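Input (structure):
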């Protein structure tokens, strides 16, 4: 359904590979999908296709293009999971925000009025960072990691942000979740949704991590959120 394109990185430092899917009719809004630490794999491409089927111009950049372009990993394969952790350690999230700004400039160049962003895991952290550092019109993060370490940036959020927080996330401690609630719940532009008993990755498209009921609830909330803020 989609195509592979290249988007010029901020400062012209290179070309960001991206997967893009177009809706059947001209889109008035776009969705940027930011992958997990497993690269631009089949599950992320499916999410892009699903957004296009809903009428959005949808695009997912290859976040590891600087050091592992084209990598696609399966979290259910132990060796590939460890490989993904290594890429996470190499990844520069500040450069990742620059890449998001480049993709945002690209979507706006396609004539859409508004652009939203949805990210997963590392992408969930980037959704938070993009809400604080870019002019993205709305952002949603699923099980974002390390957000509790950068709550000082919350004051810079000027557009709606929603975060899906599974309470049994083994990468985000109860203390980190409590800090997120304490720092973000008072902000009128930020919404946190808790998912009792669910773990990291519960909304993956396929694989052992997916929780069907939780994924469906979270995805419907995300669709409603973007319909309200990008319409």
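Output (sequence):
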């Amino acid at each position: 359904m989609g195509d592979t394109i290249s988007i010029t990185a901020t400062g012209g430092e290179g070309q960001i590979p991206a997967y893009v899917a177009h809706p059947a009719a001209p889109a008035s809004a776009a969705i940027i999908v930011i992958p997990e630490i497993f690269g631009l794999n089949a599950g992320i491409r499916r999410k892009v296709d699903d957004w296009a089927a809903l009428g959005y111009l949808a695009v997912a950049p290859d976040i590891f293009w600087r050091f592992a372009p084209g990598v696609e990993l399966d979290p259910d394969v132990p060796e590939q999971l460890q490989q993904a952790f290594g890429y996470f350690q190499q990844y520069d999230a500040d450069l990742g925000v620059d890449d998001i700004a480049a993709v945002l400039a690209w979507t706006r160049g396609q004539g859409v009025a508004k652009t939203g962003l949805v990210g997963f895991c590392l992408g969930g952290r980037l959704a938070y960072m993009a809400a604080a550092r870019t002019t993205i019109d709305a952002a949603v993060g699923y099980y974002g990691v390390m957000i509790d370490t950068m709550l000082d940036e919350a004051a810079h959020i000027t557009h709606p942000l929603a975060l899906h927080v599974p309470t049994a996330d083994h990468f985000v401690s109860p203390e980190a979740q409590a800090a997120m609630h304490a720092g973000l719940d008072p902000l009128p532009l930020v919404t946190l949704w808790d998912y009792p008993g669910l773990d990291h990755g519960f909304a993956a498209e396929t694989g052992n991590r997916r929780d069907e009921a939780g994924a469906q609830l979270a995805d419907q909330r995300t669709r409603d959120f973007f319909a309200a803020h990008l319409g």
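Notes: The chain is about 35% helix and 20% strand. The CA atoms of residues 97 and 130 lie 6 Å apart.
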